[in-house]
Design goal:
Radius of gyration: 19 Å
Number of helices: 9
Bound molecules: S-adenosylmethionine
Shape: globular
CATH topology of one domain: Rossmann fold
């Protein structure tokens, strides 16, 4: 898929999903987000960048953990996610968080960060290697990174969603979605970006939906296929919903579903003695780490 088109689909899709995301996903993602923050082990005073921050499930907690002297820069491709997060930070009087619209493959120039986090964002980026190199570039020497992605396809009970949507709308939402969840894939992406001391953990979870409506909302409204699904006419929507619920049959529980899922969470470090991350290099946009 063309990278420009993929970014456009992502931006439009997540703009659309932004209002439903927390309703359908906040609780389900909590164990993964807790583990990301626990692994990041943020300290008061640290400078943190949260890449592909979405509605700020990580960034807002990170801002609290590094306050009052630390700061968080939260970046995302979706202008609506960024506008919503800025509003939310203002309404909660969080004054050490700034939200900025940026592509994960081009984070711009900033004072170096102590910690970079990317929670469930790398799967949507056209070239995760370039995004990993950017995470590396914006860290100070010795800085830490924590990245999470969905795990192996066979361990994610909801995985039929993508082919079900693709059979009805040519969307190619994120062609490489499960590639980073394969054993060792996240580690080798971080290694390729120059990170060291990489540690990869798998976390099995159950996504619990109280009703078919909740399972459908999470899949079709609050996530990456929201844009493609918005193009369904009524008959297509009904058939896609029926096929998706049939794909969850094995996981039905009472009036709802308990669907298995898996996350991969990796932590790593930028080596101590490397070039000044504030100095942009001519090659880093193409994935070659400085
Ligand atoms: C599943 S949400 C994760 C949000 C948040 N990090 C969390 O853990 O709840 C994925 C996010 O990735 C963002 N995204 C997709 N492609 C991106 C890109 N190329 N650069 C930056 N963000 C991107 C989307 O806009 C969306 O907000």
């Amino acid at each position: 898929m063309d990278a420009k088109l993929q970014r456009w689909v992502q931006r439009r899709g997540w703009d659309r999903a932004s209002t439903c995301y927390e309703r359908y996903w906040q609780q389900q993602l909590q164990p993964a987000i807790d583990l990301v923050l626990q692994t990041a082990d943020l300290q008061r005073g640290e400078a943190v960048i949260d890449v592909a921050c979405g509605t700020g499930l990580v960034a807002l907690r990170a801002a609290q953990q590094v306050a009052p002297t630390g700061r968080v820069l939260a970046t995302d491709l979706s202008p609506r996610m960024i506008a919503d997060l800025s509003r939310r930070a203002r309404s909660r009087a969080v004054d050490n968080l700034r939200a900025l619209c940026r592509d994960a493959e081009d984070l711009g120039d900033h004072a170096p960060f102590d910690v970079a986090v990317c929670s469930l964002g790398l799967m949507y980026v056209p070239d995760p290697g370039v995004a990993a190199a950017e995470l590396h570039r914006v860290l100070r020497p010795g800085g830490r990174v924590v990245v999470s992605v969905w795990g192996e396809r066979a361990r994610c009970g909801w995985a039929e969603l993508f082919p079900i949507v693709a059979a009805r709308v040519s969307s190619d939402v994120c062609p490489m979605f499960f590639a980073l969840g394969a054993p060792g894939a996240l580690t080798s992406t971080l290694e390729g970006a120059g990170f060291v001391d990489i540690d990869e953990t798998r976390l099995a979870v159950d996504l619990v939906y109280g009703s078919a409506e909740d399972a459908l909302g999470a899949a079709f409204l609050g996530g990456p296929v929201a844009l493609a699904a918005s193009r369904f006419d009524d008959a297509t929507r009904r058939s896609a919903h029926a096929e998706y619920l049939a794909s969850l049959d094995d996981f039905s529980e009472g009036p709802g579903y308990r669907v298995p899922g898996e996350f991969v969470i990796a932590s790593a470090r930028r080596v101590e003695n490397c070039r000044d991350p504030r100095r942009p290099t001519s090659t880093n946009q193409k994935g070659t780490p400085p």
